[in-house]
Design a protein that fits this description.
The protein has 275 residues and is an all-alpha fold. It folds into two domains: 118 residues, no CATH class; 139 residues, no CATH class. It contains nine helices and two strands. A two-stranded antiparallel ribbon has the order 1-2. Helix 5 packs across helix 9 and helix 6 crosses helix 9. The longest helix has 29 residues. It is globular, with a radius of gyration of 19 Å.
């Protein structure tokens, strides 16, 4: 009978690096979110370029720059369309961008499906982020989105570290536990209700709780999905852009799924179906 591996000691030096990195990145996000408009579009555009670069390096070792450029162009075209209010064009450009990325990959001996998926993976989240902020009460809804994802991550880590217990999906993410999963959901629901109470998001407390639950589930799903992608491509992190955190994709994997779900909830509220 083999013995269990020793428990991994907490890396305090890595925690300090993470805190310093977050203290630089979070204010930039908050400022751009507050001002909206071109500031928000610029921030999302820069994030798209960085994510596309990480996707190219991770999925296309033969021609990472070409694939990254193709993915960047496809996604940027879509988010500029949504920014100017051309919703259907934005989704059409996403499909066109995926097809063009696949053609570029085919000409460089890379896998076309992986290149196309880079656009499909990044574009919906970027479109949702732009659309959500440009909608009425967009600042409040975008704030709720980030509060949900950040709270889900923090509470999942805190509760999972304290309670431990059975693993959530050990094959792809061996450090995540069921206790952390439920702790993250409670944190996400609490954050959504808190933002709804002190903002103009026009949600009653139980509707906010449902939005928080859905956003928390999406955050967890996005995190697990990115873990599966990294396992498929044989990498530990998507990159090394952020000290102590890895790549940008490692930090926004949950946000990418949650942004689409929260945008969907905003659409339901906008159409009056939730009233």
């Amino acid at each position: 009978m083999t013995s269990s591996p020793p428990a991994r000691r907490f890396d305090w030096s890595n925690l300090v690096i993470r805190v310093v990195s977050a203290s630089v990145l979070i204010p930039a996000v908050i400022l751009a979110l507050w001002f909206g408009g071109w500031a928000w579009l610029l921030l999302v555009s820069v994030a798209v370029a960085l994510l596309a670069n990480e996707w190219g390096v991770m999925s296309a070792p033969v021609a990472p720059v070409r694939i990254a450029a193709a993915v960047t162009v496809g996604v940027l075209a879509a988010i500029f369309a949504i920014y100017f209010g051309w919703e259907w064009l934005a989704w059409g450009l996403t499909l066109v961008g995926a097809a063009l990325a696949a053609l570029v990959a085919r000409g460089t001996a890379e896998r076309p499906a992986d290149a196309a998926y880079g656009v499909i993976y990044i574009a919906p989240a970027a479109i949702a982020l732009i659309w959500l902020r440009e909608m009425p009460h967009g600042r409040s809804w975008a704030t709720m989105l980030f509060a949900i994802t950040w709270s889900a991550d923090i509470c999942a880590f805190a509760v999972g570290s304290a309670l431990k217990g059975p693993k959530l999906w050990p094959r792809f993410s061996p450090n995540k536990t069921w206790s952390g999963f439920f702790g993250g959901l409670v944190g996400a629901m609490g954050a959504a209700m808190l933002v709804a109470t002190f903002s103009d998001a026009t949600l009653v407390w139980y509707a906010a709780a449902i939005v928080g639950l859905l956003g928390g589930l999406a955050t967890m799903a996005g995190d697990l999905w990115e873990s599966a992608l990294k396992r498929r491509f044989g990498v530990k992190d998507s990159g090394d852009l952020i000290p102590g955190h890895g790549g940008l994709l490692d930090r926004v994997d949950g946000l990418m799924f949650a942004s689409v779900v929260i945008a969907g909830a905003r659409l339901v509220d906008h159409l009056g179906w939730a009233h």
